[in-house]
Amino acid sequence: MLSTNGHDDLVDHLVRSTPLRRGEAARVVMDVLAYFDETVDEFVRRRHRELRSRGLGNEAIFERIAEELSRRAVAPPRLSQRQLRRIVYG
The whole model's pTM is what? Predict the structure, then answer.
């Protein structure tokens, strides 16, 4: 059985409130936790790659990433485009 690291109550809730079976609900919980465990640097690099693959240019990408960061569950401090570039390119 997939370990939910103490989130069995959330898994139980998903099983009761959705058509998911227990194993599926546990995987959803672990995926969501992993998503929110992503560091700011990891998030910026991942989103840059994803948006770049869609053909967006850096100016549009960095504006969008800055906006998305402000809506994260625990929003980090606002980063300038220069700081975002430094995360991506070093």
Answer: 0.65
